[in-house]
Amino acid sequence: MRARDFLSKLQHDAVVKSIGDAERKMRGEIRVFITRKEPADPVAAAQEQFVKLKMDRTTERNGVLIFVAPRVRKFAIIGDREVHAKCGDSFWREVADEMSGYFRQDDFTEGLRHGIARAGKLMAEHFPSQAGGSNQLSDEIAHD
User: Where are the alpha helices (DSSP H) in the chain?
Assistant: First the structure.
């Protein structure tokens, strides 16, 4: 599936709202990135995009990226150093498995919203919101 087709099936505003809702409950950043490319290793591609999006520069190193490569029907969900230290690989595998169920049914919006909610809940437990917190990165879906 082409990235354009994937994006056309997404309810963009619902995904962006989910990001904003999650981020209001915690300190941290969640981003979604859709690529036109065909990465062999979506985790490595996600790690590269994480840096390009400057997600490695958040104040507390607590960003999460959901990276989707529709052409090869692959995706990855990764967290920065501090988030990963709180949850480990098993959390990411569990969330990815849950998201895969939605994606297999072509329910991309709900798959992304589910991943965002799960990441947001984890981050709210370990990085609860504080007065005066700020949104350091855009909530918009990014793509190449």
Answer: 3-9, 12-24, 42-52, 81-104, 108-126
- 3-state SS class at 1: coil
Tell me, yes or no, if the pTM score tops 0.70.
yes
Largest CA distance in the chain: 42
Question: Could you give the C-alpha distances from 87 to 64, 108, 121, 124, in angstroms and in order?
Answer: 12, 24, 11, 12
Give which of 144, 21, 31 is closest to 80, Cα–Cα.
31
Contact 67, 33 (CB under 8 A): yes
Residue burial 24-39, b: 16+ Cβ < 10 Å; e: rest: eebbbbbbbbbbeeeb
Show pLDDT as tens, one digit a residue, over the chain (144 residues): 888 889 898 999 999 999 999 999 999 999 999 999 999 999 999 999 999 999 999 989 999 999 999 999 999 999 999 998 988 889 999 999 999 999 999 999 999 999 999 999 999 999 998 876 678 889 999 999
